[in-house]
Design a protein that fits this description.
Helix content is 40%, strand content 19%. It is built from 11 helices and 9 strands. It has a 7-stranded mixed sheet, sandwiched between helices. Strands 2-3 form a two-stranded antiparallel ribbon. A hairpin with a 2-residue loop joins strand 6 and strand 7. The protein binds phenylalanine (PHE).
Length: 341
């Protein structure tokens, strides 16, 4: 009897050795210890034995059952550990890998520069007034003393919608709209989109300007120079200098073109400033008396200064951008460069 039981134990042992997953282990356990299992059958057969046989047989079967049970528990434990280890290695994550950084957008360079310009002037007490992009001939030209035969009125320069309505070619109508509504002292900036039939590396059919207007008693070219000196120091370097060159605009008299010392070579002469050491940044002047009068301001009491600058132009000079079109292509690799501040 003992030998037979030893054989059962041996075969359970060797069968267990070849088991490598929980499912096979369960099947094997059923084979020995399940309802119809080999050992269960032995236990069940005890009822047919005589009482004497039963006690010695019972002890042997119980020992066998305990031994086989223990084998299964051991195997179960080993399998669980093995399966856990396998799962760990399969599902392992490398916590030393750097995480995916969320991509954060940034302001467009034109907005960065526009904000800088607005801030520089707002610090000097200017308010912002935004006029319409579709304007009338009166606000764009007549009220600004631009005569009927002026080239700006040509279809080739200005986008007309009707004979009287057009896409504003500059932000100067903002001056007129402000002066019509408000008596001096006036100190405003009028930023916005403007449109001209022009398209090459330094001109875009749509671009942005900021108009500045100051009207008060005794406003002079000195005030203009002081304002612009302060402005260029905020936008470019501390040591940037300005110079006025005589020019002509129908709405200012006298008119000037304003240059700054080249921000790349600081006045020595380089490719950016074409060897001159100076770069033109804006047009300005003392508001023409006729313009003040047309908008209902007494030109014997008040005088004004005005300036108009292109945001693209200042941005290109500041960042050394050679083609205006790159500002409108929305190439993320290009735009990303202005992210750090
Ligand atoms: N409106 C002019 C332009 O677009 C700029 C300007 C504004 C010049 C105000 C003088 C005074 O070129």
């Amino acid at each position: 009897m003992q030998e037979k039981f030893d054989l059962i134990l041996q075969s359970a042992k060797s069968e267990l050795e070849s088991i490598s997953n929980s499912k096979d282990l369960f099947d094997l356990k059923t084979k020995y210890l399940g309802k119809n299992g080999e050992i269960t059958a032995l236990l069940r057969g005890m009822k047919d034995l005589s009482p004497q046989e039963r006690s010695s047989f019972g002890k042997l079967v119980n020992d066998l059952k305990t031994a086989v049970d223990a084998l299964f528990v051991q195997k179960e434990q080993a399998l669980k550990e093995k399966e856990l280890e396998e799962r760990f290695s399969k599902e392992a994550i490398d916590i030393t890998l750097p995480g995916d950084k969320p991509k954060i957008g940034s302001l467009h360079p034109l907005n960065i520069v526009k904000n800088k310009i607005l801030n520089a002037f707002m610090g000097m007490g200017f308010e912002v007034f935004e006029g319409p992009e579709i304007e009338s001939d009166y606000y764009c030209f007549q009220a600004l003393n631009i005569p009927k035969d002026h080239p700006a009125r040509d279809m080739q320069d200005t986008f007309y919608i009707t004979d009287n309505l057009l896409l504003r070619p500059h932000t100067s109508p903002g001056q007129v709209r402000t002066m019509e509504k408000k008596q001096p002292p006036i100190k405003i900036l009028s930023p916005g989109r403007v449109y001209r039939a022009d398209d090459d590396a330094s001109h875009s059919p749509m671009f942005h300007q900021i108009e500045g207007l100051v009207v008060d008693k005794g406003v002079s070219l000195c005030d203009l120079k002081g304002l612009l000196d302060e402005f260029v120091r905020v936008i470019f370097d501390e040591d940037t200098k300005t110079r006025f060159r005589p020019s002509y605009f129908p709405f200012t008299e006298p008119s000037v073109e304003v240059d700054v010392t080249c921000c790349k070579c600081h006045g020595k002469g380089c490719s950016l400033c074409k060897g001159t050491g100076w770069i033109e940044i804006l047009g300005a002047g003392i508001v023409n008396k006729k313009v003040l009068e047309m908008s209902g301001i007494d030109s014997d009491v008040y005088s004004g200064l005005a300036f108009g600058l292109g945001i693209e132009r200042i941005t290109m000079i500041k960042y050394g951008i050679s083609d205006i079109r790159t500002l409108f292509e929305n190439n993320v690799n290009f735009l990303k460069q202005f992210n750090r501040r």
